[in-house]
Each structure stands twice: as C-alpha cells, then as structure tokens.
Amino acid sequence: RICKMAGSSAPHFGLEEGEEKPPPKWESYGPFTKMKATWGCGNEIFFHDYHRGRGKPDRGKSLFDLKAWPTLTPQEKILLHDWHRIFHGIRKSMHGCKDIPGLVHQTSLQYLPGLITLSESLSLGNKKEDAELIEVCRIIWILFQIFYLDPSLNVTQQMAEWMRKCSPMVFNSNDPNYLPTENMDSKDGEKSWESIMRLVINGSTDEAIEALIRMGVDDSKEGRTVIELLGEVPTLDGKSRSTTIELLNEFHRWKLRVEACATSGHLSSLLSIMRGDKKTLEFYAQNPFELLVGRLIYEKPEITKQDIRVLVTECTDQYEDFDEFESCLKAIMDGDIMDALQKCQVIVDRPWFLAHLVDLLALAGWIPKKIEEDSEQNYLEYCLIEYASSIMTHPTLWQLSIAYFAQCGERGKAHIRTLIESKPIQSARESVKMLSMCDTHSLVASRSAICNRLGAQALRNERFGEAVNWYVRSGASQMVSKVCITLLQRLLDDEDVGADVESVSMNFSTVKKRSRKMWASLTLLDEVHSFCKLRAEVRKGEIGQAKEAVQIALKILAKKLGHAGLWLKILSECAKILKRISGCSGNVPVLSSRDSLKLLHHLEHTCTFSKLSPGEDEDSLEKSMRSMRIVFSRTVLGSTACER
Predict the structure, then answer these.
(1) Distance in angstroms (rounded) separating the CA atoms of residues 635 and 599
(2) pTM assigned to the model
(3) DSSP 513-547
(4) What mean pLDDT is reported for the chain?
(5) pLDDT > 70? residue 641
(6) What is the DSSP string of 223-274?
C-alpha cells in the first residue's frame, strides 16, 4: 500500500522495531523551536539571543559547527536552482497582480515538473528509495494543491486524477493485490476482477475497459452494456459539461441507465459500484482514499471543497491504525493544515519541499501568523530559515539561501549578516558578489567586515596597494595609516613598490568626507611617492628636479605625520640630494635660506624624538645626524651668502 511505501523510504523510518527516534538536541529549548526542525540550524542558533531581545545571532556558536549539512545529488541541485527561480519569479509577478489565487495556482503547477524529473532521474540512477520518496512529495503536493491552491470548486475529477497518480497499483508493483492490466485474463479470475473493481473505484475507466475486453466480457450483451456505461461516466470536462448544472443533469440520466441495467456475478458488483453502493465500495476499496474517490465519482460528483470534509470523515471512520503518511493525507483533506504540515515535516526529509509548499500556502492565505501563541515568529519564516540554513554553507548553493533569508524580516537579515561575515572568500569574483549582497540588503557593518578580511588577506600576501583600497572601503582609518607607513618606508628604502602605490585609489574628495585621518594618510603616501620619483630623476642627473623634491619633503615634514624614523629617513634623502648637486650647481643656490633653515630646524626637532632602529648602534645614528647637520649648515651658509 502507498502509505507503507512512504514510511519505508523516508530516512526516519530506518529504526529497529521498538526503537524510538532520539529527540533533536534543541527539542527542550522552548516555544521558539517546538516544531522540532528536521534540517538546518537556522532557528536553533537564534533562540538564546531572541529571548534576550537583541535579535542577533549567538556569536558564541559557530554556524558551521552546529550540524553536518545534508549532501545533495546533482539532480537535486538542479531542482533547487529551478525552484529558486520560481520562488523569486512569483514575487516579481505579484506586483500589480489582481488575481493572486490564480497566480499561486499557476506557480504551484510550475513546481511539479521538477519533482517528476527528479524522480525519474533518481530511478535511472538506481536510487529507488529516494525516487519513491520524491513520488510521496508529489502526491502530498498535488493534494495540497487540490484543496488549498486551486481556485476551482469541483474536486471530484481532481481527486480521481490524484488517486490514479498515487494508487499503489500504478507505481508499487510489490503490492500483493497488484495485477498489471496486460496480465488480467479469465484464468486468474478473482484476482483480475478485484483489480478491475479497484480501477473502476479509482476512476481509471479506460484501463478497466481494456481489462474487461481482455477477459472477454464484451462477448455478451450485458458485458457490452456495462463497458458502454463505464465509458460514459460523467465528469466536468469543460466542453459538453462545462457547468455544474450540466454535469448533474448528465449524471442523473447516466444513473438512471445504470439502475435500469440488470446483470449477475462480477458485472453486478461493477454496477453496484457505479450506482454508488456504500457496502460494495467499502468491500473493494483498499484504503479510505480509494473509498473517498469512489464515493465522489459515483455518488457526489458535484461536491465542493467545503463539503468534502464530511465525506472524508465518513470514509476514514471505516478504517483504523493510520500511519504517519495516511494521517498526513487525512489531515490535508480534513482542513487541519498545521497538523498536516507537521506530519509532512517528519515524513518528507527534504527541507526544500516544505519551505516552498508553505510559501505558496502562505501567499494563498492559509498559514496562521504565529507558530505558537508565545512566539513572535511566523511559520513561513520558520520553514524558510530552516531550509536556507541547510544550504547556506554549500559551496554552490549558498547564494540561493540569501533569497530565502531576505523574505524573513529582521531574523532573515541577521542570518544574511551571519552568513556573509562567516563565509570564507575564495576569489575576487566571490567577494564582489558578497559586497553586492551587502549593498542590496543594507548591511553596512557586514560590508566593512568583508573589506577588513580582504584587506588583511592582501596584507598577508604583501599586496599593499590592494590592502589600502580594501581598508579605505571598510573605513578602517587606523589600518590605512599603518599600511601607508609600511609603503612609505619601502618607497624610501628603494624597494619596488611603485605599482602598489599607483594601484591605490586616490579619490581624495570622497575619502576626506568619510575620514580626515584616512585622507591625511593617503595624501602623505601620494606626496612621498612624488618625492621618490623626483629623487630618482635627480639620481639620473636631472639637477633641476632637486629643488622641487626638497620642497615636497619640507611639506611632508611640516605635517608631522608618521614617526621620527620616517622623518629622519626623508631628511637623510634630502641631505643626499643636496650633497649630490652641491658640486654641479656652481654658485647658484638650490634652496632659499629660509628653506635651508627649515631643513636644519626639522633635523634638530627630529633628534629629540628619534630612537634607535633594531640593529642600529648609537654611534651610527650620531654619525648620520652629524653628517646631515654639516650638509644642511653648508646649504644655509651658501644660500644666505648668495642672497646677500
């Protein structure tokens, strides 16, 4: 039977007889997780902080250590991408849509081909149990669609179609009562007739007629009459019977013909089924759902969704010992939607299934606002967070989780923040995607955190220009200053870092508005770079660049940015420039006496702050300072003499 098949293929049913499934570790957390999630840890990780009222994830827990995330087959990944597209598409279509129920119904139909394709691909891949579980998903989905997502009122034809799709005679050949149509003949009479009765009850009249012809029933006049009546069972086909009144008139005329027909034996039982005889239907129906469909077709073809629940109760009262799958189907038809969803959560161990199903039910207005009376979270958010958190660490599906979190208000936004700040960044392309997501969802702090991580990564790899750019984007002025100083020292030491400096984005006007400290550091870096380029020209013999180089150095020293070691290095380079050009300029002064005195003043001021560098002795420092004093003093004397 179909219900047994569903139980055997779901992972939760793999326990020994008498063994109880251990409760989830978050079961005792309180009302926030009473739904006992099967997948993901999205709701678990947020429990404590929401009780404290902060609305932020628990920073003491690592989202990546809470649970071993489920492995997904390639076919299932394709399905998740397709369903994500549908999930995103319905939200775009809802803007300005006047027929929301119709839109929801059409969207529900778009989800179904994915389930069929996945089931077929799993069957071809010798994963029979997984394929059967996907079939169970399809059966549950279609039943929800009939009762909650389809705006049409008549359900008889829909239920007959549903029963034909989910009957164990169709897809469970291990059923002892199953007999394929091509194997039915008069040699195996009782078994063949029992299968025919069930085909008629399920509304599979074409298959029943084929079986009857195979058994030679059409050889007699009574048999041909019964076959003719079976081929004319009235349904609401939208053509000859497009309204309920037309259907009822046709059904009444057909019923009179059935009543007037008289036969014996098995054909008499077939006529009793077509007359809607309850005892005959109960005798041949293998489960309450076959009985329900039989009564709908042959007793109440005009019934509405509101009235069908009385008939469901009458049919299910004839049976006992429902398992979880049967209970789920019964709850769907009874209208107990939350009970049905909770049972579905246990039967179908696929988070993507319940999340998308509940989303459609919520859009159709069937989902209550709260999970529990004392919980602020609604059931849709709960399911979306559970699903999204189950794929948020997947290497290729993590981007899909963002779309689902985005539909969950502040909780979803907090999850996005946690994901973005925790996820390792493997490539520049991935960093661009994550920064784009931060901009989309207005996550300023997360954007800064990502830029800081990328800056630190670039700094470890000695890509200083890239590091400065990332730290500027994050607003980390202290790190910008630190990296700029490192670049300055390497520039002055003649290291090949010119490309790093040139890669720094010198958008001074924008940076100045954000942070004056960052603006000052970048300005200093730009000026030192200019000084070093002029110094290189002087070394090549371009004496005319010496004055401009020293004046830039004076401008840098006047700002007093950096540390004494940096100032001393700049003064040392100025002394070397002046010493190099002293023999080339003749009696023409390179600097004015005022600028020369400034150099000497900066040297004396720096001496009071200078400290020994690692590996440098005091005599060496003193010797260097004495040499610079001599050069600067001669420059002062020469410029003063020329000016007089």
Answers:
(1) 10
(2) 0.70
(3) HH-HHHHHHHHHHHHHHHHHHHHHHHHTT-GGGHH
(4) 76
(5) yes
(6) HHHHHHHHTT-----SSTT-SHHHHHHHHHHHHHHHHH----THHHHHHHHH
